[in-house]
């Protein structure tokens, strides 16, 4: 176990930063090769500060030959990058299956990050009482994700062990290069165009939330179980929801974010959370626009009800950081960090002036 190697995709992302810190505490001897794009000396130095045996390699998800080769060399692959990118997922699985079929001492492990957006009910911002509350004991392959189905099929070969992590709405200021979660960043990016924090539809839809550190601890619990040879759920049954019992509506989230900005001297957002107009979304650039559409349709406009029963039953996991660090106290801090990191102060000021 001490000589295990990890290939990590999405190293500069929000989840990866906390995951690397947690891995350094639990597995400081593991060699980690982390994929990222657009590297600079300062970026590499910061990433390497998170783990004592981290090596950063430059590349993109489109570099499928390199990804396949890296996966073939790794005992463990953890993917917290663009988790619906089918070409890179196929490359990972090809590499792992080659390693698993080569007679290596242990079957390689693949942990893939998705999200509870898969539970989306097409509510378009309305609240609908759930017909089904997803539990981790459910056979979640019925969710119909192409990426999930591909990963489950790979597990049936016996050459790779697969687990899929499904966190709810993640909060908490992270230690990594990306310090705030994608949904919060999308909210604020769009707010810089409108002058207020908006919702997708009326925003009455609700979802579970969970602290970033709890997401990392859940993924480590899954990894620990796999490395220790525990009788744990994998493949078709290896879906692990990561969530607390607490929920919030998207309009309430938007209002919290708007209220924070309304009382800051350098921020210029109105406090109410009103629906975002389609023409505003269309103004966002091509890459950001794709993220906005994913967040709006799969996450921010749907209801998502789940329970993390499998994590609790198999590993004794509980969302202890969610209990100790209030969501409602964290979001204002995240707004402050995000406004600064994204350089949105001037944009908010212009948006406010236009809306007056």
UniProtKB/TrEMBL annotation:
**GO molecular function of the protein, one example?**
aldehyde dehydrogenase (NAD+) activity
Highest taxon listed in the record's lineage: Eukaryota
Concerning Gene3D superfamilies, the annotation shows:
NAD(P)-binding Rossmann-like Domain
Query: Per its UniProt record, what InterPro entries does this chain match?
Result: NAD(P)-bd_dom_sf (IPR036291), NAD(P)-dependent_oxidoreduct (IPR051783)
> What GO CC annotations are associated with the protein?
cytoplasm
**PANTHER family, A to Z:** NAD(P)-BINDING DOMAIN-CONTAINING PROTEIN-RELATED, PROTEIN YEEZ
Report what the protein is called. Uncharacterized protein
**What organism is listed for this UniProt entry?**
Rhodocollybia butyracea
Q: What are the leading ranks of the lineage? A: Eukaryota, Fungi, Dikarya, Basidiomycota, Agaricomycotina
């Amino acid at each position: 176990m001490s000589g295990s190697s990890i290939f990590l995709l999405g190293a500069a992302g929000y989840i990866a930063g906390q995951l690397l810190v947690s891995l350094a505490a639990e597995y400081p001897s593991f060699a980690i090769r982390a994929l990222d794009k657009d590297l600079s000396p300062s970026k590499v130095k910061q990433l390497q500060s998170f783990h004592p045996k981290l090596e950063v390699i430059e590349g993109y998800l489109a570099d499928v030959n390199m990804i396949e080769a890296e996966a073939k060399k790794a005992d463990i692959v953890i993917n917290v990058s663009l988790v619906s990118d089918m070409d890179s997922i196929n490359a990972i699985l090809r590499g792992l299956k080659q390693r698993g079929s080569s007679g290596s001492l242990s079957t390689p492990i693949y942990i893939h990050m998705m999200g509870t957006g898969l539970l989306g009910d097409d509510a378009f911002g309305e609240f609908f009482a759930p017909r089904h509350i997803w539990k981790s004991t459910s056979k979640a392959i019925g969710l119909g994700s192409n990426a999930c189905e591909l990963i489950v099929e790979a597990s049936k070969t016996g050459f790779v062990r697969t687990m899929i992590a499904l966190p709810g709405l993640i909060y908490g200021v992270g230690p990594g290069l990306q310090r705030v979660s994608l949904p919060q960043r999308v909210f604020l990016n769009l707010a810089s165009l409108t002058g207020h924090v908006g919702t997708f539809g009326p925003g009455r839809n609700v979802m579970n939330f969970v602290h970033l550190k709890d997401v990392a601890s859940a993924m480590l619990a899954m990894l620990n179980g796999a490395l220790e040879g525990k009788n744990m759920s994998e493949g078709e049954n290896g879906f692990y929801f990561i969530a607390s019992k607490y929920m919030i509506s998207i309009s309430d989230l938007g209002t919290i974010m708007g209220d924070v900005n309304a009382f800051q001297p350098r921020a210029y957002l109105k406090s109410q959370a009103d629906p975002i107009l389609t023409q505003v979304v269309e103004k966002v650039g091509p890459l950001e626009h794709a993220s906005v559409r994913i967040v709006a349709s799969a996450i921010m406009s749907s209801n998502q009800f789940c329970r993390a029963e499998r994590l609790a039953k198999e590993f004794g996991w509980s969302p202890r950081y969610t209990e100790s660090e209030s969501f409602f106290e964290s979001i204002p801090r995240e707004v402050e960090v995000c406004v600064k990191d994204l350089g949105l102060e001037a944009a908010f000021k212009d948006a406010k002036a236009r809306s007056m």
